[in-house]
Every structure is written in structure tokens, then in C-alpha cells.
Specification:
The structure holds 2 protein chains of 2 kinds.
Chain A lengths: L1 H9 L3 E4 L3 H4 L5 H18 L8 H32 L4 H4 L3 H17 L3 H26 L1
Helix pairs in contact in A: 3-4, 3-7, 4-6, 6-7
Chain B lengths: L5 E7 L12 E5 L9 E6 L2 E11 L2 E5 L12 E2 L3 E8 L1
Antiparallel strand pairs in B: 1-2, 2-7, 3-4, 3-7, 4-5, 5-6
Classes of the chains: A mainly alpha, B mainly beta.
Chain lengths: 145, 90
């Protein structure tokens, strides 16, 4: 190990950031989008299950799908909160006057999808998250200019 | 895949505490496939990052920090972004 340290003193190693999202400023809406798509898939699975005389396997799948829906709706809300509070700045309100309302509605849809099994609500959540992803892309593009 | 089989890095910041503290030196082995649970160094936005592999879905690698107290959210990365997996801390 000392040998490697000697090598490092001559040839400096690169820095590997074990960063947290706030300091390094690297954000991405994809985790929120993946979570929202998972909610849609789970609602699809739940609605596709046999309602009359479900088997043990059906019940097992039902429980797992509900749990996964719950977990991903929660994850979606968490990811949206990070984008809302950490990435978007006050100057972005000029570009997106309805920014706060869009995020608030999306967060509400996350909760609604936990409470209900509704394809309509799941698709609305996906649409809301995709809208936020669009805002993110435009905001990021404006930073690079 | 990187040309060199090994690479050296110094850890900066705290999202891998307690397993990797700021200032730890790590050696990666770059000529191997990524596995679940591996600690990897990857490249993003012209910087190197060190995280643990939490999930693998096709070519997407989901990574996260070991430090549960500090938020360490990171979008899934492509396998091609992985430089190597950490094999030694020194």
C-alpha cells in the first residue's frame, strides 16, 4: 500500500467525488420518470388481475404490485422534491411562470396514486413528470448558453 | 472499456462514509464487468464519481452512496460510463 502512496505522490491520482446532490449540482429527471412509469405499469398489473376467486398466486402478485406502486409513487415524489428545491432557481420562474404549481400538482398526483388504483391518475402523473422533465431540459439548455 | 487495467483515485466528499472517507485512496480494476454491490468509479459531466451499484437493468447502472444520512441521489448511468470497480483502499 505504501508503494501505491509513493506512486500517488509522484503521479497524482484523479479525484473521485463521493458527492451529494446539492454540492455538485448534478440533477436528472429520469429517476422520477422511471418511477412514474413504474406506477403506470403496476396499475396495469393490478387492474389485469382476476377479481373473481383469486388464487394465492394472484393475491401474492396483487400485494407485490400494490407495494411496488406505493414505493415508486413515494420515490417519484422524493425525486421531484429534489429537482424542485435544489435544481430550479428563482430565475427559472421567468421561464416557467407555472413552475411551482406544476410541481405541486405532480406531488399531489404522487399521493393520489398511493391512495388509489387508477389508470387515469397514473397517466396524469406520468404526463406531469414528463412536463417537468421538459422544463428541466429547457432550463439546462439555457445554462449551457 | 479503459485502456489501463488499473486506475487510482482519491475520494472527495462524504456520501460513501463510513466505508470510504474523504482522503482515502482507491485502486480500481477496469477490465471486468460490473456486479451488484460493487463500488465503482464512473465518469459523468467531466468528473469522476465513486458510488455503489444498487441495481442493474440492461445497460443502466443504478448507483447510490453508502452514507444514508446524506442525500446521494444520482440518475442511472450507462455501463460505458463506468471506469472500473474499486478493488483496494489504501
Amino acid at each position: 500500500m505504501n508503494f501505491l502512496r509513493v506512486v500517488d505522490s509522484i503521479f497524482k491520482p484523479s479525484i473521485a467525488f463521493a458527492h451529494c446532490d446539492v454540492p455538485c449540482g448534478i440533477y436528472d429527471p429520469r429517476p422520477a420518470q422511471i418511477a412514474a412509469e413504474t406506477v403506470v405499469k403496476m396499475v396495469e398489473k393490478i387492474e389485469g388481475l382476476t377479481k373473481e376467486n383469486p388464487t394465492v398466486a394472484d393475491r401474492n402478485l396483487f400485494v407485490r404490485a400494490v407495494w411496488t406502486k406505493e414505493e415508486h409513487a413515494r420515490k417519484c415524489k422524493e425525486e421531484l422534491l429534489i429537482l424542485w428545491t435544489d435544481f430550479f432557481k428563482p430565475e427559472h420562474l421567468e421561464m416557467f411562470p407555472s413552475l411551482h404549481e406544476t410541481f405541486w400538482k405532480a406531488a399531489k398526483l404522487c399521493s393520489l396514486n398511493k391512495q388509489e388504483v387508477s389508470m387515469e391518475a397514473a397517466l396524469e402523473l406520468k404526463k406531469a413528470v414528463d412536463e417537468i422533465a421538459g422544463m428541466f431540459a429547457k432550463a439546462k439548455a439555457s445554462i449551457k448558453k | 472499456m479503459t485502456i489501463f487495467p488499473f486506475s487510482r483515485f482519491v475520494v472527495n466528499d462524504r456520501s460513501m462514509v463510513p466505508n470510504y472517507e474523504p482522503g482515502d485512496h482507491v485502486l480500481t480494476f477496469n477490465w471486468w464487468y460490473v456486479r451488484l454491490g460493487d463500488v465503482v468509479v464512473f465518469e459523468a459531466d467531466n468528473k469522476f464519481f465513486i458510488k455503489r451499484v444498487n441495481k442493474l437493468v440492461n445497460n443502466l447502472v443504478f448507483v447510490g452512496g453508502d452514507n444514508l444520512r446524506e442525500s446521494s441521489k444520482f440518475a442511472p448511468i450507462n455501463r460505458k460510463q463506468v471506469v472500473g470497480r474499486v478493488v483496494l483502499k489504501y
